[in-house]
Amino acid sequence: MMSTKSDIPSQTHIPPQTLCLPQELVASTAFLLARVGISMKVRVMDEMESAGFAGYQYGVLALLGEGATETQARIADVLGLDRSQLVGELDDLEERGLIERRRDPNDRRRHMVTLTTDGKRQLVKLRAIVKRIEDSFLEPLGEDERKQLHDVLLRVACSHDGRYKRAV
Amino acid sequence: MMSTKSDIPSQTHIPPQTLCLPQELVASTAFLLARVGISMKVRVMDEMESAGFAGYQYGVLALLGEGATETQARIADVLGLDRSQLVGELDDLEERGLIERRRDPNDRRRHMVTLTTDGKRQLVKLRAIVKRIEDSFLEPLGEDERKQLHDVLLRVACSHDGRYKRAV
DNA sequence: TATTGTTATACTCTATAACTATA
DNA sequence: TATAGTTATAGAGTATAACAATA
Question: A101 and which of A69, A111, B46, B132 could share a cystine (Cβ 3.0–4.6 Å)?
């Protein structure tokens, strides 16, 4: 499963320099941001899958957990997913009784999506998973460093994506 | 090209709340890190492609730009790419005269890869692209905030990936 | 037998297009 | 005609497996 990617290189007549990234990349904040962000996401996705949840289902539950009843189109737009992609995720969540889809009587094209009690329970579980992974990643940082990191990231995010607006 | 994803939602009898992400996600440093990191990567990839470079070619050039002659296996391992994936990228770079592959006379299985003069020139160009994108993203941050961000990310990266070691 | 580079194949995501039912 | 949800299809990207040359 892990192939040979993380083997200690046993090269011989190349100086036994440790496997190490080019300074140019390590010096780049963009590079670090992408690397750390992606590996965090991968880890979250993996553990979500182990917990029986696929892809972006946590995002959906988290959004619905805020209370509002949402349309599928809105869920997709807010989360930046494709509407067609969302269908499958919702099908699964619905079958498992974590969400409910009801037709909007005022516009029968629309599905109003809400979280069930069971869905809320699962959300708590998934939230804990994310929190645990986040803590493990940010372990080398002190409390105020974490706060500062979050603050800085939020400002950067806001300046490039209008969907963060309210949180500023 | 942009589909309808960024349309202002014209929903009517749903309160005209602006499209906005769940607070739970916005409050999560892991989420922000992944979001910002990925959108930065996407932007870099896009602009690289516009400049005629595909995928991870910048990484390869940057690595070779540090001076050392590297084996294909080492390039792949350092950059975290699949060895088979690397072949195509190198083929392209070689055809365009930006790198050179020579058989290692001491071990004829190996290809020693080096950067050509032209490759160095292109590297300078790509470096500028990344720098420009990074600056645009980090624009809301002051000088010392950027430094602090880089420092914090580096520490996090180091604690989860041995390939950063030297840079600590 | 193990390893390097290579080629071929399969699989997962995501993006696109087409279809229905409603408006 | 346009939109919401759905289904089907295609493409990109990645991972896996098999292979030839060399050690």
Answer: A111
